[in-house]
Amino acid sequence: MKRMLSGIKPTGQLHLGNYIGALRHFVDYQDEYEMYAFIANLHCITVPQDPVELQKNLRDCVALYLACGLDPAKATVFLQTDVPAHAQLGYIMCCHTYMGELNRMTQFKDKQAKGEKNLSGGLYTYPALMAADILLYDPDYVPVGDDQKQHVEITRDVAERMNHRYGELFKIPEPLVAKVGARIMSLSDPSKKMSKSDETNKGCIYLLDPLKTARKKVMGAVTDSYANVHFDPENQPGVSNLMQILSSLSNDRPIGEIEQEFQGKGYGEFKRAVADAVCARLEQIQARYDEIITSDMIATTLSDGARRASLLANAKLEKVQKAIGMEIIA
Ligand code: TYM
Could you tell me the pTM of the whole model? Predict the structure, then answer.
């Protein structure tokens, strides 16, 4: 069975972009692949966090993984810090990653370009930790949204470098980026990615948004004056984004079919269909979330997940440390 690994960083509440670009694929793939899905809490603290809020977000993230359909009997679901090998290999990866490579990473460059002050060293070296997250498990594929592809590519580069230097240590992973829904845009500004750091709070639908709020956000989504439901991300980014959301939430229905269905109809009717699809999915997820958040499923999932993940991670860390010459007692 081929293996997959991915993670989400719960710096805030999970949103529809995380679900469409990543989480729903983890669920789809868990039958066919050996799936490792973790909560990237080390990555969270690369930007300042309120401890009480962070702890709530972490619990919610596990509950949402399960509520969206990850089954702990099939997938290994775990918290990054429950497997200390992530931080340990992260340091080793950092020592094998060039500053020139880190300087090219858009995530850090974007924050710097915006003039954000006091960016942390952790944020700068973040891709090295992400490389460790991945390489500890020798996955064949890493399902991610479009914005994380660059991080999987640097992972491949560093893995190849280390394999070349020390002998075969790591499998070279492939990023898996879906054709539709890999970059869901903000509803209020479709030139920007839907993200947790949405200042207006109108552009981002959170998985735990009340249905009324979610519907309002979809109905208020920025479109254009063409009055034509047509897929053209360059000239009609808002409408094209809504089409991708609708397609992703209706079993990857072909975009062409959606275009046909709404030909000659107004944006109001189209947006209502998108809002119905969004609300139906959120309702399902939230009902499961309500059951899980008060149960002991979170604790059992995480302890079992940490045990299973540690088996692979500790063996890989040991192999790497030996190959580098860091161990004294064999
Ligand atoms: P994060 O937490 O920013 O996002 C989690 C996943 O959601 C995807 N995503 C989106 N997809 C479509 N449209 C959007 N608007 C959107 N926003 C986010 C992301 O591409 C990602 O797949 N560094 C990672 C977490 C991580 C990780 C890893 C992932 C840490 N270690 C190892 C894979 C493997 C991150 O910050 O993702």
Answer: 0.97
